[in-house]
Specification:
It is a single chain. By secondary structure, the chain is mainly α. It has a single domain, classed as Tetracycline Repressor, domain 2 (Orthogonal Bundle). It has nine helices and no strands. The longest helix is centred in the C-terminal third of the chain and has 27 residues. It is globular, with a radius of gyration of 18 Å. The N terminus is likely disordered.
């Protein structure tokens, strides 16, 4: 089954069949991802949503609240999409390759680590905990898949959560670009394959 539709965590683009709050958070997600937390204002979100700033503030008291909800919902979508991909009957390595391709495609224009680092300096401990909880649940989906593969004898016994974190860490390495904004490997299919091969070499021995 091909998974080339919507990038892994991006919201749906149909603005006509969703509530005002969902419209605000969906548009805000794309603004934050494209421009960064510090640049985007509540005015920007209101204008893009074609609503008043008061409407945005009705649902979100602060930009930090809006950003946190946007990121939490994005991670929920990522978790759901990962679950769908990882629940197929393909061998584990092929499922990991599908996840890698979609992740690398979705993040090829975003420096995720810098993006989150810039935002976190403006967030409270409460906001950070909400995002950390959502992120942990993403890792749990992958860890459960690895655990099942261990139970079925597809791979040797491993620390499942560590294995999940290691895989995602390698995906972030794949997002690396040098000072001229050149990626490690330009072709995403090749990059995804090499990352998964590298990871699988350690996981399966």
């Amino acid at each position: 089954m091909e998974h080339k539709q919507r990038p892994l965590g991006r919201p749906r683009q149909n603005k006509n069949t969703i509530s005002t709050k969902d419209k605000i958070v969906n548009i805000a997600t794309n603004l934050f991802l494209n421009k960064g937390y510090q640049i985007v204002s509540m005015d920007d979100v209101a204008k893009e949503c074609d609503v008043t700033k008061a409407t945005v503030y009705y649902y979100y008291a602060t930009k930090a609240d809006l950003f946190t909800d946007a990121m939490v919902q994005m991670m929920v979508r990522i978790r759901e999409n990962m679950y769908t991909i990882l629940s197929t009957n393909k061998p584990l390595k092929e499922r990991l390759l599908d996840v890698a391709k979609i992740h690398l495609t979705a993040t090829m224009d975003i420096d995720i680590k810098s993006f989150m680092r810039d935002a976190k300096i403006s967030l409270s401990d409460k906001h950070l905990k909400q995002m950390q909880d959502a992120e942990d649940k993403m890792y749990e989906v992958l860890a459960q898949t690895i655990d099942k593969a261990i139970q079925e004898g597809e791979i040797p016994k491993r620390h499942t959560l560590l294995s999940a974190h290691a895989f995602v860490a390698l995906l972030y390495v794949g997002d690396y670009k040098d000072v001229d904004q050149k990626p490690l490997i330009p072709d995403i299919e090749d990059l995804a394959q090499q990352i998964v091969d590298f990871y699988w070499n350690g996981l399966s021995k």
